Structure formats: C-alpha cells, structure tokens
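Contributing: when you submit paired examples, paste them exactly as shown. First protein:
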Amino acid sequence: MTRSPAGKYRPIMSSEPTPLTIMFWPESAYGPTNQCIGLAAILRDRGHTIVFAAESSWTGKLAPFGFIEELVDLAQPAEGAGEEDAGAFWTEFIAETAPEFRKPTIEQLGSFIQPTYQALIDGAKYCQPRLREIVAKHRPDVIVEDNVVLFPALVTSGAPFVRIVSCSPLEVTGPDVPPPFSGLPSADRGQWDAYRTEFDRTHRAMWSEFNEWVQAQGADSLRDLEFMPHTTAANLYVYPAEADYLDARPLDDTWARMDSSVRETDEEYRLPTEVADRPEGSALVYLSLGSLGGADVELMQRLVDVLGTTRHRYIVSKGPQADRITLADNMVGAQMLPQTKVIPHVDLVISHGGNNTVTETLHFGKPLIVLPLFWDQYENAQRIDELGFGVRLDTYKFADDELTGAVDRLLADTELRDRLAEIGTAIRGRDGLRVGADVIEKVGVQHRASVA
C-alpha cells in the first residue's frame, strides 16, 4: 500500500513497476532540496521507498513527506551546537561572502566561485564514510544526486547513478554557449575566452587535486575542469524548451529535459486581504531573493523601500533574516512562503534569478525582473533579458527609477504577458516533474531486472 498526499492509501497494481528503493542526495540549499522533494513525492506515490540523505540541518524536515531521513554532516559539528535551520550551512556561508557579489563575475571566480567549490569538495571528503554507510544500509536501486560536485560514494556502490542539473543548463559547457557563472551574452563572444582563461587559472589546481581524490575513492576520472561525471545512467536538467540552448549546445541521448519541476507538496496560499483588495490600476508582485540572497539584509531593505513608493501591492519572501526587514504598507510577507502557490496569483516576479524561481515563474507564464547575486543567477538573468521575457538589472547599482520603471513597463506590456501566458500553458502541458520521475524510475527498474 502507498500513501497519497491527501493521506489516503492506494494499492500497488500488478501493472505497476516493482517497488524500488530510490536514494536522493541534494545540495543542502533549498533550491536543489525542494526540486528533489518534488520528484521524490511523485515516486513515493508510485509505491517506491524514498531515502533522503540530507545535510544535518534538514533533520525532521523530510520524514513528514514519508521519506526515510538519513542525516549527513559536511563538517565536524561545533561543540555544543544546537539545532540549525534547514540549509543553515549555505545561508551562513553566503551571508559572510555577500560583499563579493558586488564584483564583476570574472573577479568572483577567485573570490567566490572557487571557494564555494572548495567548500563543497571539503564536504564531500568529510562525509564520504557516512554516505558509504547509508548506501550499504539501504542498497538503493538507483541513486540521484542534485549537486555541482561529485560525492564518489554514490558512483562506486554498484547502483546506477542519475545526475540532476537544477542550476542553469550552462553548467553543461560547450564551445558555442557562454561560460557558466559569467552572465555574458549569447550573441557576443568578445569576453568568453578571457573568462574561461581566468576560470582555468583559479580552478586548475583545485580540480586536479579533487580529480585525483575521486579516483582514489574508486570512481572514474572526471572530464577536464569539470566536477561532475558525464558517464551516468541518466542525466536530468531543469529548463523550459523556450529558453534552452540546444541549438548552440546539443546534448546526447543520456540527457532528458524537465521543462519545469514544480513540486506539488507546497501548502495552499490564501491571498491576504491587504493585497487581494487592490486599488484600480495596481498590480500584485512577488519579491524574493531566495533563501540565500535574502541573507543580504541591506539589499532586501532597499528593494522594499523603493517598491514601497509605488501604487502596486507586493508579497515578499523575506528570507532567513526576516526579523531585520521592515515591510512597507503596501506589502505582506513572511520568512518563507509556499512559492509555487504564490506565483500563480501575481502579475510579475522580482527575483535573484535562482533556477527554481526562474523556471517556476515561466511555468506559470509570468514576466520577471532579475537582480542576480551569484552562481548561475547571472546567466539566468541574462537569458531572461536577451529572450525578452523580462529585465535584468544591476543588483547593487540600479537607480530607483530603473526598478520602478521596469515594474511599470512589464506590467503594461500586454503583448509580452499574453506571450508568456501561452508559454506557461505549453510548459505545464509537458509536465516536467513526471518526465523526471519516469527517467529515474526507468533506470531503477532496468537495474533491478539486470540483477534479478
């Protein structure tokens, strides 16, 4: 018997696949973890056993979905440390590193991108014995990782390995697409080579050491300057066809695109009367810099103050420093919101450009204003701008009237809003969540049959 989200049980029919054990290992941040929760919930409802190996701050957050929680430390816990918020590891790291986000992306390679990779690598080394222990205990039929560095315990167990790219698809590099993290335009290659040269300079030694360690753990060598394997049972990535780079960077048949991955586990959202009853001519806008970007209190407060001068109404996801952010009278908000249930209500999204938020916004057919902070947010911001789906602004240097003008311009562009509504309908029809679940399930079923 399996349990549905409504709490009712349904039998596993004889035509359904043999129940599998499927293990997920997402990066500790909310984006990858929520993406995996969405997939896992679909697979749970098909009768499969879901094991979530999760960084320890997620304790108690995954079991309520009916998943088996196996907690993993990425570093030696501090003596006397109490319970942390989910994703606290990266929230604290980002908060400490926020000044680097004011630099051009090419300068961030040495001051932010490389240290972030190093932190992930250090975590992979520290938790290697624990991940091996979890794999040996549960003997999964398929292992799914959503992260940007390989954890070798996951590819040396004998179980098939599925990679998820829930960042921008430029994580999968190619000579004819802009380099990842750069935010450089697709139509102008003028700075691509300089950026790639700087990536090599800042990352070569770290990559070489990591690749040697990966092989010492029994895994295959990685491709040059790449931190995840290409030889896998299957690869998934999350990006709608309308924004994809396939013409410039084709992918082989090991790759499957999930046009969107909108989890169905978020609680319903009832519009507060303060924003539901709006004056004529005002719109409803959602503001979120994500669970990590929201840690920059100064930036969040400036956005709130500027938008508070407009006639529109706002729903604000305040982030981990919620108690330090004072909302304007035309706003409601909370530390966290059920984003996938909020976006359908609004007319416009203002975002940091995280892949989840961007793809969820396109899934519901809404325009975007993007203020990128780090990692793939720059390339998502650039892609939205160059495709005409919204506007990219300079996160720390925008003038007040640039932001308010972009809001009014996008809200007034009925042709764009109609176009995006049509795109959203098409994306929802392709049902990316079940596309991804089907791929994972197929890999597990084939493996089970091969060892039977």
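Second protein:
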Amino acid sequence: MKPANLLILMSDEHNPKVMGCAGHPIVKTPNIDALAARGTMFSSAYTTCPVCVPARAAFAVGKYVHQIGFWDNADAYDGSIPSWHHRLREAGHRVVSIGKLHFRGHEGDDNGFSEEIIPMNIIEGKGDLMGLVRKDLPERGLSWKIAKLAGPGETPYTAYDREITTRAQIWLREEAPRYRDKPWVLFVSFVCPHFPLVAPADFYYQYPLETMPLPKQYAQSERPDHPYLRDYSGSFAYDRYFDPDKLRKAIAAYYGLCSFVDDNVGRVIRTLEAVGLAGSTRIMYTSDHGDNLGARGLWGKSTLYEEVAGVPLIVAGADIPRGKRVSTPASHVDTYPFIMACVGEDRPAMYEGHPGVSLLALARGERPDRNVLSEYHGMGSTTGAFMIRHGKYKYVHYVAYRPQIFDLERDPEELRDLAGDPAHSSVLEDCRARLFAICNPAEVDARAKRRQAELLEAAGGREAVIRRGDLGFTPPPGYPAVFG
C-alpha cells in the first residue's frame, strides 16, 4: 500500500451482530454502514480475549494473550512489550491516542504514544482485583447495576464519549495538518456501548420498547447448561435483577448506545473530510470485544460465543477493496501488520513473533492455513477457556470442563452444541489438535493462575480484595470510583 495516515476508531463492547451492515433488522448505524460500503468488512472477526484489559493489551502488541501475559482486568499493559505505537513512534511517526486505553497507567509508564489525550486507564493502577480470585468465585456486589440503571439518560460514559469526539475533531483540525513528513496514526477509543445501559434520549427513543426482541435462549428452559456458564452467571448475577420491563429497556438502551457510538464515528469522519484529509487517510473501525446482551440469560462479556468473542472490523481507504465482505476468519492480531503496512513500515524489523496476517491480504482474497484464537483467563471463570475457528466449525476448549463445538454454517446462532454427537468426534479431535498446535491450554492456564496468585497476594489476599468490592465499571477521568 502507498503510505497514508490512519484513523483507528475503537468502541467498547460492541456486539458484531448489532449493526445495520451486519444485517441487524432494527439497529441504525448509518455511518458505520457507509464505511463498510466503501471499504472491506470482515464478517468473522475475533477479539484475542473477550474482556477489556487483555484485549486492549493484545491489540496494542499484536500478539495473543498467552504470548504476552496480560491476563485479566487486574493485569494491564504497562508498556514493557513493544506495541505498534512504540514501533511507529520510534520510526518518526506521530502516534496519538484519545480516550480509553485501559492500560496500567502508572506514572512513568511509556505506552508508546507521542501523546495521550484524556486517557482512561484501570482504576488506581490496580483494576479489577476480584477477578484474581479463580476458585470459589465470589458473587459480584454490583451485578444489579445493569438492570436497575437501564433506560434513557446520560452517564459519565456518554459525557466522556462526547469529549473524546470533540478532542478528535480538534486534533484533526489543529494538529493533523502539522504532520506532513510522515503519515500519522490517530487512535480514537470510545467507551460506549459498554454498560451502564443508559442511552441519550435522542438515541434511546429510536427503539420503541414494544418492538424489542427477546434475547435468544432467554427462557430458563432454553438456556444451555454448561459448568463454565454456571460459574460466570453465578459470579456475575446480572440476570437475577431483570423483569420484562427492565429487559426491554436494557435492549433498547444498548441499541441506542450503538447508534450513539455510530453518531460519534460519523462526526469524526465528517471532520476528516471537512479538513481535506479523507483522501490521504485510511480508516479502521473495530471494538475490543462484544456483549452477550441477554442471550442465554447472560450479560456483559467473558464468554466465547459469537456475540462476545466476535468483533466488528471494517477498513476503508486507498488500496482497500470497496464494498467487499470477507468471511475468512480474521483476528485483532491481523491489525498489527495492517497498521504497519498502512503507514509504510511493513518491514522485518517491525515483526518479532507476530502471528497476524495483514487485513489487506485477507481483503484481497488470501486464505491462510491457520486457526484464529480467542482465550479467556479472567473474572467469573475458574478455568482457562480457548476458542478456535476451523472452517465452518467453532471449537471451545475448557481446561477443566467438557468442550463445545458449533457448526456456524448450519447454526450461526450457536443453538446446538455438537460436542456430544458421535458423528462429530473426528471434527472434535481435529480441532483439539489444531488448538494444541497453537498453545498448550493446561500450561497456559497454570501460568495465568500463577501470575494471578502473585497479584492476589500482593493485594492482601482473597478477603482483602473481596472487602474492596466490585467496581461495576471503570470510571472515566475525573469521576470517582464507587465500589460495592
């Protein structure tokens, strides 16, 4: 690709099914849809980890979580492993972040950016210490927040996203024109549609409550019975606090927040066009992970279903195919080589053990012989969980529990687990072997838990972190933390 500027737009917890361009029948995302129409959309894209902190560390470094060892929401990126920000800054590019990072945030940490504008990092430089407890899981004290708060209104998150949007518009107008010698990268990172499920009125009321669909497999009799899901729902008891009215309000608010994110995306892109930089800037839109949104009675993240491990991933601009949809599985590790190529730094010195394949190669039809991976080692789980895509199959491996396998061609909603079907035993074994060719799940699980045990001891032990309580969600800059 010819070197050009790059604008990366990242949201937080955007279910990849909840976009117009993904075929959603209700949700309005006209700006994201327009970006997909003039670029390439990856319809089977995955996060490296379905929770914020490890996902963002892996996105920064361009490697899988088990390669870098930032395991959970209390073990955040600290700049110690070179990121694409470090590499590009060292090569003379201006690399600026605006908004959520969810890094460690200690004074003196060098995250590799030329400038960090209103960054949001983990609380107190410690994050979610309760997530370090990986056995006899405590119930989260603030699980009631998702249901109780659901509805129309404003929150610190919506205010923060408006400020992020404004700061991005200012940077594009006042700073971007100053950097003409080498392409710049602007990383604009929003916090919505992450809960609290409170959407600004203009967006919430686009979705009448009587039209809100019931989440799939929501009835108690329909919910899958798997020990991993029991662990998670027992610790994050979100669904206990829902009634039919709150359920409809929560879904409407999430849809409204997706439209709110879309509106902010549109404002930033229109500013890029207004200042005459659209022709010399490529754009990427993605999210750190998705959201269960009530499916199977689950809320939040931390599972490996498509709604959560899947992510929206769209790229557009010069040399990128227009109006194309790529079904070949893609991963956030593939964004690292794409970023390097975008700004003209696609050379061997920029890579060291990076497993990604450039999104441009995938967009142009390359089908690499590999399996993309997502893994989880954090809050609400007692065992490591690993997912790979192999052709039409999704295989989910739990170190301590029985596996799952889904045929995503015949069953895209993952309603039927085929792991117990003798007709699929050979597929199960093949997928297991392919996962073990990437990593040894038991070794990775043990390594994660050793690190978490060390951090737990340093924090005063199990009872101390339980007394500290549940944060619910990280406050943005300037807002107090409220534990419960």
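If you have annotations for the second protein, write them as plain sentences, like these:
The first helix runs from residue 30 to 37.
The mean pLDDT is 97.
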